[in-house]
Each structure stands twice: as structure tokens, then as C-alpha cells.
Design goal:
With 411 residues, the protein is of the alpha/beta class. It is built from twelve helices and twelve strands.
Length: 411
């Protein structure tokens, strides 16, 4: 198991941007050293701010892009690998339109767009705005890779250390959280397990053992540095090799190929185990199924066994939503909006956080091979999308309100 990220959350203008970044840099150096001294490799250290419409008050587009480039450079000088400037917000429609330019200007900066509002609301204009960001971002590079740095958010709260979903509350108090790369724990726990109960017990014990060690380190840092500890997001993030694949873990439970019937039950079992494990949860702490980051999932998608609808279905019982999904290059914003609306509806009805990181690949059709050159990706094939533009009342400017389903509620 590795640490995918130590993510530091802060408000860039408190007490001042220069002082805040200096404080962040000092903390992250000590945090990385402490976590590595406890026996864990740290892949990245990251920085997340409150939603950029709250604090980025520069109205001139060119000046705003320049400011973000400078901020990215300053964060890199402080020791951070990547930064997230948080989501565009439904009550700030112009914030969505600025994101493609920001993505182009700052290659190590991540953004998101919030589709939902408190109390079960879904903003139809925000859903469409996120879809337009995805369509425009896909055209920024020949391979559509820019959309790795944008996701649409539904019911996602502050404090997730995983990018692109990470953002801080408006609170000025700094905080930090840990994101794990721990799919190997599930593969190890399930290999050769004689029963499902044994598989769950092995995984829960492994999670809690590592959590105890990490929490001890985090609490020392919290006390010494006066930086709030949000917790651990144990979403079992994969890496594109068999020993670190959530797809492999699902198949070790008895599924022949991910996407076939039984996969949902396997996903639910893993998610339930994560819920039962005793550690300070933050973010998603669910089953993460990013197609292009998991070699087994990438193969299943290439075979056509695993579909976009399958992944959305599994999100109902476990994970983080739709992640790193390669789509045909001619997919329109109107088609994407239909998918995003489903994600938002599922998140609000089940009262759970979900995201959608969709990656239309310019010039590619469904079934074409992907050709990304990125160490964290396993190439697959472009996945077909069964989506048509919405019409009628869905084209309005409403806020849809969905009552979250309560436990034991009949339907």
C-alpha cells in the first residue's frame, strides 16, 4: 500500500497568499517526512483551496489566467505536485465558462464543477455547463487528456483528498487528509479466501491496521502543527497492474469478468467492508473504479463486458461515480449532459457523493483503441455511450429537488 496523496487544504488569502503558501510548504515537508518515516511511500503532495469563485475576484480573463499560472508556479516552489482550485458553483454561472481557459493556462491545476445544491437540489443549468466544459476541454489537446483535470461533482463535500474532487470549505483554518493507493490490500485479502466472510474480515483487518499507523502519525502532525486532520479516504485507488487492480480484486471474489452479473454484489461487499472498518473517514471512502487507471477494468471495457451503464449502476452501491471514461470524440455536450444528470440524480436520491470524469477522445470512435502515454493509465478502447440530448422540461433552468431516500422507506 502507498499513499496516493497528502492533500493540504487552505485559503490562499489568509493571512496572505505568500504567507499561506510558505506555511503550507513547511507543513507538507514535515508531513511527507513523517509519513515516509512510518513506512509508506508518498506518491504526491497536493494543495486544495475553497471554490475559486469565492476568492478569485479577478474579472479580466487574461489576468485571471495569469494569476492562476503564477499561483501554480508558487505552489510548485513550495513543494506541491498538483493543486486544485475547487468547483465552479451553480450560483456563479460565469465560473463554469472560465474553466477551459484555466485548464489550458495551468497544466498542473485541477478544477471541478458543482451540479448540485444543498437540500437535494440539482441545477439543470450547472449540469449543462459542466457538459460544455468537458466538450471544450476535450479539444485542447489531440488526445483529450485535459479532461483528466476536470470532474463534475454531485453532493461532494469539502475534505476529499482525491483530485479533481478536492476542495476546502470557506473556513480559513488549514487542514489535511490522506488518500491511499490501496487496491493491493483487497487483492491480497481476497486471494484464496475460502468464504466471503473471510475475505471481508481480511480486508477490514488490513484497513484498520494501516489506519492505526497513519492516524497516529496524522494526530502527531495535527497537534504539533495546529493543522486540522480531516481523515483518510480509503477508496482503494488502483494502479494499472494486476496486483493493484480493483477489477482483479472483484474477480478474486468469484466474478469471471468485471461487468458480468455478480459484479454489483462484489462491489457492494467491498464498499460495505470499507464502511465497517474503523478509521476516520473523509471524502468518498468507497470503491473507486476508474477505467483507464485499472488494467483489469480497461480490459473488460475493451471487451465490451463493462459499460458506462454498468459503472453507473455500481455507483449506486459503492463508489465514486464515473471516472476516466474514454468516450467517442464526437460526443456532444448535450449527450454528456444526459449522463451527468443521471449521476447527479443518483447522488441526491441516495444522499452520497458522486463524480463524473468523462474523457471524449478527439478523432476516435467507439471501439477504437486509446493511445494515452501516461504512467497511471492502462489503455483500453473507446466506450460507446448510449445517450441522446434531453428535451422538454429537462431543458429548463430549474433546480430539481429530490428527496433523499430514507432507510426503510418504501418505493
Amino acid at each position: 500500500m502507498k499513499i496516493r496523496s497528502i492533500t493540504y487544504f487552505f485559503h490562499p488569502d489568509h493571512p496572505s497568499r505568500k504567507e499561506a503558501l510558505a506555511q503550507a510548504g513547511r507543513f507538507i515537508r514535515e508531513a511527507r517526512a513523517a509519513v515516509e518515516a512510518s513506512g509508506y511511500a508518498v506518491e504526491t503532495v497536493r494543495l486544495a483551496t475553497p471554490p475559486f469563485p469565492i476568492w478569485l475576484d479577478e474579472q479580466d480573463p487574461a489576468a485571471a489566467r495569469k494569476l492562476i499560472r503564477e499561483f501554480e508556479n508558487q505552489a510548485a516552489a513550495a513543494g506541491f505536485t498538483y493543486i486544485s482550485l475547487g468547483p465552479a458553483l451553480p450560483d456563479s454561472p460565469e465560473s463554469f465558462t472560465r474553466i477551459p481557459g484555466f485548464l489550458e493556462a495551468a497544466p498542473n491545476t485541477f478544477f471541478s464543477g458543482m451540479m448540485t445544491t444543498p437540500g437535494g437540489g440539482i441545477s439543470l443549468p450547472a449540469v449543462r455547463a459542466c457538459a460544455r466544459v468537458i466538450e471544450r476541454a476535450a479539444a485542447l489537446t489531440p488526445d483529450g487528456f485535459t479532461n483528466l483535470r476536470f470532474t463534475a461533482l454531485a453532493n461532494v463535500q469539502p475534505g476529499s483528498p482525491f483530485f479533481p474532487a478536492a476542495y476546502h470549505s470557506a473556513d480559513v483554518q488549514p487542514a489535511f487528509a490522506l488518500a491511499t493507493a490501496a487496491a493491493d490490500l483487497a487483492v491480497e485479502a481476497f486471494t484464496g479466501a475460502p468464504t466471503l466472510q473471510t475475505a471481508q474480515q481480511r480486508l477490514r483487518e488490513a484497513l484498520e491496521m494501516h489506519a492505526r499507523r497513519l492516524v497516529e502519525v496524522a494526530q502527531r502532525l495535527e497537534k504539533a502543527q495546529k493543522v486540522h486532520f480531516y481523515g483518510i479516504d480509503f477508496s482503494l485507488a488502483p494502479f494499472p497492474e494486476e496486483a493493484q487492480s480493483l477489477g482483479t480484486a472483484l474477480q478474486r471474489l468469484g466474478i469471471e469478468v468485471v461487468g458480468m452479473h455478480g459484479s454489483l454484489a462484489a462491489a457492494a461487499l467491498i464498499a460495505s467492508t470499507l464502511d465497517q472498518a474503523n478509521f476516520p473517514h473523509t471524502g468518498f471512502s468507497g470503491l473507486m473504479l476508474p477505467v483507464l487507471e485499472d488494467s483489469t477494468l480497461a480490459r473488460a471495457a475493451a471487451l465490451g463486458t463493462l459499460t458506462v451503464k454498468d459503472l453507473l449502476l455500481y455507483s449506486a452501491v459503492c463508489g465514486t461515480g464515473l471516472d476516466t471514461i474514454p468516450l467517442p470524440g464526437d460526443t456532444t455536450a448535450d449527450q454528456i449532459a444526459a449522463v451527468l444528470l443521471d449521476v447527479a440524480a443518483l447522488a441526491q436520491r441516495l444522499d452520497k457523493p458522486l463524480t463524473a470524469r468523462l474523457m471524449p477522445v478527439p478523432g476516435k470512435l467507439a471501439g477504437d483503441p486509446t493511445e494515452f502515454e501516461f504512467a497511471y493509465f492502462a489503455n483500453s478502447r473507446v466506450m460507446p455511450l448510449e445517450a441522446a440530448p434531453l428535451s422538454g422540461a429537462f431543458l429548463g433552468g430549474d433546480i430539481i429537488t429530490l428527496q433523499p431516500r430514507k432507510p426503510g422507506e418504501n418505493s
